[in-house]
Amino acid sequence: xxxxxxxxxxxxxxxxxxxxxxxxxxxxxxxxxxxxxxxxxxxxxxxxxxxxxxxxxxxxxxxxxxxxxxxxxxxxxxxxxxxxxxxxxxxxxxxxxxxxxxxxxxxxxxxxxxxxxxxxxxxxxxxxxxxxxxxxxxxxxxxxxxxxxxxxxxxxxxxxxxxxxxxxxxxxxxxxxxxxxxxxxxxxxxxxxxxxxxxxxxxxxxxxxxxxxxxxxxxxxxxxxxxxxxxxxxxxxxxxxxxxxxxxxxxxxxxxxxxxxxxxxxxxxxxxxxxxxxxxxxxxxxxxxxxxxxxxxxxxxxxxxxxxxx
Length: 310
Ligand code: BDR
Ligand code: CA
Fold this sequence. Notes:
This protein is an alpha/beta fold. The protein is 37% helix and 17% strand.
């Protein structure tokens, strides 16, 4: 089994990533840490609890983390995800308790307890908690097996500004510190997540599972996709965060290239931009595996089959 910690700001696409992980026996879900991003921290934590309750996984600790980025004010995305972050269907308030540990303490403690090089971190939101953990306990860096994250964009540009993707835009300093930490990184940028679209036929297949999870996920997808459908004039919205979990389960669904990646922190115009040296023009060493294309039919076959297990 592959032990992972998911750091997240649910968000419908984060929620679907959590369900995909919860349904997959190849992954040992050690814990979920929450961060402010799509909506404020109190809501991302509540939403993580709702999702794990829906998955029937009351065994996974959920620890709340940073309520704001390192050195800039929080920017949220209610215009994409709705005012709760999980709009699309009415769900009961969760009864699952939050673990009393702070997310950063949980990450540090878990990495120190577990064997060096065994635990993968899966950040699906702004990288604040990960950067804080690396600041507080630099000894954990060599203990992390890999960071597999959703963030950035190169060929697609950005989705918040012309240059920047949301997760890196919200906390550019944290993204910079993670990309210069020396920890091996795999990144799923917009270039790949924009290929994984929730078309009407794919949503129907999930609704036809006939389960509560199928009903909830299809409602979330229909709410979430309307934003990108309007913006890009396409059938379906991008399932960003589930790409991280799908990569862990079936890396062959993705093509990739090892590149040098740097994050802009200073410029107002390009704040949070991921500068990916795709063509190797700088000669700088690669610090990230950058996912480029996805087998989207294979991705949805995997997702649908796994959701059917819940
Ligand atoms: C990222 O931003 C959030 O809105 C999504 O959950 C995803 O993590 C996409 O830019
Ligand atoms: Ca997210």
